[in-house]
């Protein structure tokens, strides 16, 4: 019985340690995500080219992130959702950043369009590979 508990505990520690880098992502994950055509379409990124992109990251997944621009648009990261009260087309909530083994997922929500996107991805050879999405409108 003790051996089973030790193996189970070791497995949990291994899975947790392989996911600890999830909060150490650089800004390139956001940039890569916004380049996916499906994301551009669902979040209407090309519809409002003059709007500043505001990413509301209340869980501080991208705490030290500083992107100069995406699509020639300024990008601002905000950790307090109360700071952004107005409903604008380029305000996006990062509501999830999780991992399981070496597979990660990120979730974005636009209050303006009501679109919610959750993408699963892996990192291979220094590039992010997006392979599965779940989306919907509220």
Quick take:
Helix content is 22%, strand content 37%. With 138 residues, the chain is α/β, with parallel strands linked by helices.
Give an overview in words:
The chain is built from 3 helices and 7 strands. It is α/β, with parallel strands linked by helices and 138 residues long. It has a 7-stranded mixed β-sheet with strand order 2-3-1-4-5-6-7. The longest helix is centred in the first third of the chain and has 18 residues, at 2-19. The chain starts with a helix and ends with a strand.
What integer value in Å does the Rg equal?
A: 17 Å
What is the rounded distance between the termini? 48 Å
DSSP helix fraction: 10-25%
Q: List how many beta strands DSSP finds.
A: 7
Low-confidence stretches: 5-18
Which structural class do you get from the secondary structure elements?
alpha/beta
Q: Please describe the biggest sheet, giving its number of strands, its sense, and whether it closes into a barrel.
A: 7 strands, mixed
Which descriptor suits the 3D outline? globular
**Order of SSEs:** HHHEEEEEEE
Count of individual helical segments: 3
Strand arrangement within the widest β-sheet reads 2-3-1-4-5-6-7
What is the average per-residue confidence, as pLDDT, rounded to a whole number?
Answer: 78
